Structures are given as structure tokens and as C-alpha cells.
Amino acid sequence: MKKYISILLMAVLALVCLSACGTSDKPADAGDSEKLSVVTTIFPQYDFTRQIVGDKADVTMLLKPGAESHSYEPTPQDIKTIQNCDLFIYTGGENDVWVDDILNSMGDQKPDILRLIDCVPTVNEEIVEGMEHEHDHDHGEIVESEIKDRPLSDFAGDFQSVLPYFEDGTLDEYITEEAEEHEKSFAEMKQEFLEKRKSDYNTLSIKHNTVSFQTSSETVSAEYEYLGFQPVKDDDGDVTSVWYTFQSKDPASGVPVYLAFNDHGTGADVHEEEHEEHEEEIAHFHLRYGNENIDALIDEENWAPTFYAANAPSEEIKEAVAGHSHEHEEETDEHVWTSPKNAIEIVNKITALVCDKDQKNADAYEANSADYKEKLEQLDASFREIVDSAKRKTILFGDRFPFRYFADEYGLNYYAAFTGCSTETEASAATVAFLTDKVKEEQIPVVFTIELSNGKIADSICEATGAKKMNLYSCHNVTKDQMEDGATYLSMMTENVDSLRAALN
């Protein structure tokens, strides 16, 4: 899930930054100007910081109490608040993509920053059995029973290999991004793409059952006959794509004996609407070819030459290649604070920064931090004791699941309706049925929801099973009443101790 800053906000951003030129470092209403000013986006980093600094620094949280953190967008005043602070702490990841635009616009006026996801090792959001998610392939879900045979004419047209665009520098910017993403050098990443997209043919033309292959020096053609299709499945048994295979009727002509096409289509009528939605996309497909046998081509470790419409402009192909590749990217799970062990590491990083920024109060910050970390250690010990002595190791959520780090830390298995960053609140009947069956099969006594949830999915499961609905705080935000009553990360996580004990016994 990606969240982009709006055009209106960008316009206001420019005005805010211009108006800030020549002003003091802090706004007039920022409190004691001698105090360190720290601005945070959401509750966890806000609470961690205030536990460390006490009353010796000003700490501001941008997210309003009771608001949903995943749909937050900064106001013009929020932008100004960020610009005028000494230290800005945010989570990072897909829900904070707006931050880069804001910080880049500030130039030399931007504050020091800390991203929570840089404080600890991160993991990707995980799609577990039965979970709905928002990362379906752009070409639609493939249902194996709906896959149909496809003639070669389905792929008809004139096409060009994408390989020259990797060779001539057109895609260098994209290669650079991919190299950074995969922690490789530019040279290594480029070589990998050259190997994966290598092709003996510059262009090819498909008409009816005939394919013509063009190299720089010659053209060879032959008629092909259809052999059938082979679905490709992931570890969960879900079909991710389909290869359609063909054999030359005249191998002596110099053409490849076997062809395997994959354009993510299935030939099923159910996908007609989906194809219409994508009719403005540049026609393209992956093509594997060889003279041995089809099985050798279908191997997923094999290379995959890619061909785009011959008349497509290079700029459009450039955009299409980058977009098509990023369809499959996994998202980092941003809820790093749900593990008390991670919370300790985050507190260490915040402590080091505030001590460096405000050395006159460093001793107080260090003392507060040490005391707070001792309480976090006690919290961690409580969770470990519960899990070690529990009857079961599985928790179930009729809700989003922002507890990947928590579950990994304590060795818990889980089922849930959605990933942690999903914006969905309504689950399909199939998802509710799956979770209901799991409660019955494994005799799970508690169905969890998270704070600020409508709880409808959990209610449905509990009604059908007799399980008890309970809340497990992810601590991403608090209500207005909780804020006024002095709720903290520790107070909410301590409530989680009792909730977890009930769920595991």
C-alpha cells in the first residue's frame, strides 16, 4: 500500500517553505525556546521520546489522538512544525513516503531525523494462510480451474526485445534503483538483467500460427502447433502465472523448436473485464525458447526474454519495465515497536540523538533512558514467561495484524484477516469462514482485535464459535480519553500481557 502526498499539499508545501525563510528556528508558540524540540509522527516514538526527555524538552505528536495512522497526511501547519523542530522522528516505509518530499523541499533548513525502521532489522509483511491482502498482481488473481487453452494468435503482433534498452543506458536509472534495493553494485545488477533478458532476436512478428524471428542479419519463420499450458505455482499452491507452449512444424527452418509464452493472461472469460482495464498498457510478454524440451523452458530459474510492442516509444517502455517489475515488490512491515526488544533498541537510538543535540541535559536523558529500558526488559520477561508456559502458540486476529515483530520475537504462530498496513475493514466470506474454522479446529479461546477497529470481523467469528473477543494494543495511536488519562506504551503493553495469557491458555 502506497500513500502519496496530494497535489494541493505540495503546493502548500512550497508556500510554507517560502514563508519560513528569514524566520526564527522555532515558532513563537513552541514553548521554551531554550528547550530541545522533538516532533514525532505517531504515538510509539512520541511516548518513547517523552519517557527519555521528561520535562526538559518539548515533544510533539503530529497524529491526532483517535486518528488512523495509515491514512495520515500532514497539514500545512504540520509541515511548518517539522521545519521548526530540532529532531524529527518518523516510522519510515510505505506509509511515510510523504516525508521525503517534505524534507527535500526544506533544503538546509531541515531538522535532524530518525527513522524507526533504521533502528532494528526489518522483515516484510507476511501473507499467511487465509489472509486477504491488497497486493494482488495487477493482472488479476489466477484461478486454476478457469485457465483455458490459448492459440498462438492471442499473441499476434510485431514486437521488440527489451534487451537493447538495458544495454544502451535507457534503463540505467531503473537499474540503479534496483541495485540499491537489492544491495548490489550497479555493474552486478546490470549484468543480472542482461542475463535474464538476453535474446537471440531483436524483433519478432506473430501472425496467425506463424512466428518470424529477426536478428541483425536474417529472418527465419515457421508455423507452430499448440502443445498446452503449464501453470506456475508458489509455495502456497496458488497459481502465479501460466506458460503457453508451442512446437515448430518445421525445425529445419532454423527457428527454435519449442516456445513458451507468458503474458499473465489465462484465456478465461472472467478476465475480459480485467483485460479491458489494462488495454492502455503496452502489449508485452515473456518468451522462452529452445530446442530440447518444454520442461527445460518452464524452469522458473530460467531466463525470461521480454518483448514489447514494436511501435512503443522508448520512454513508455522505460516506464512499463519499471512499473511491471515493482508490481511484485514486498512491503516492509513498519510496526517495529511491537516487540519490546525492538523498543529497547529504538530507545537507545533516540537517547543517543537527544543527548547529542542537548548535551547540558544528557545526564538526565541517560538516567531516564536506563530506568525506562529496565521496565521494557521486565515487560519482555513477562511475555516470555507466558509463552513458555502456554498451552498453545497460536493467536488469531479478526482484524489487521501489525504484530509480525512481536510474533517472531516470542515464537508465536498466527492467523489474521489482513496484513498490518491494510486499509481494509471488511473481509470476504471466505476469509471469515477460514478464521472461524481455525478457531473451532484449534479450540482458540480468544479472537483479537486492535485498537480503533470496528471489531465486526471478530464479532462474527466469536458469535459463530463462542470465543471471547479481546483487544491487543499495537500502540500505533491512542484515543483522546487515553491521552488525557496518561496512557503510555508500557501501560498498554502491560494490558497485552493479560490478554495474551488468556489467548494462549
Structural class: alpha/beta
Give the strand order of the largest sheet, numbering strands 1, 2, ... along the chain: 5-6-7-8-9-10-11-12
Give the CATH level 1 class of the largest domain: Alpha Beta
Strand composition percent = 15-25%
- The CATH topology of the largest domain is given as Rossmann fold
- In total, the number of strands is 16
CATH homologous superfamily annotation of the largest domain? Nitrogenase molybdenum iron protein domain
Distance between the termini: 35 Å
Q: What number is the mean pLDDT?
A: 85
The number of helical runs is 17
- Main sheet, how many strands, which sense, barrel? 8 strands, antiparallel, barrel
CATH architecture descriptor of the largest domain = 3-Layer(aba) Sandwich
Q: What is the radius of gyration?
A: 28 Å
- Parts with pLDDT < 50 across at least 5 consecutive residues: 1-31, 134-140, 269-280
- Envelope shape: globular
Question: How does this structure look, described?
Answer:
- It is a single chain.
- The chain has 505 residues and is α/β, with parallel strands linked by helices.
- The protein has three domains: 158 residues, Rossmann fold, CATH 3.40.50.1980; 149 residues, Calycin beta-barrel core domain (Lipocalin), CATH 2.40.128.20; 122 residues, Nitrogenase molybdenum iron protein domain (Rossmann fold).
- The chain contains 17 helices and 16 strands.
- The strands form four sheets. Strands 5-6-7-8-9-10-11-12 form an eight-stranded antiparallel barrel.
- Helix 1 crosses helix 3 and helix 1 packs parallel to helix 4.
- The relative contact order is 0.13.
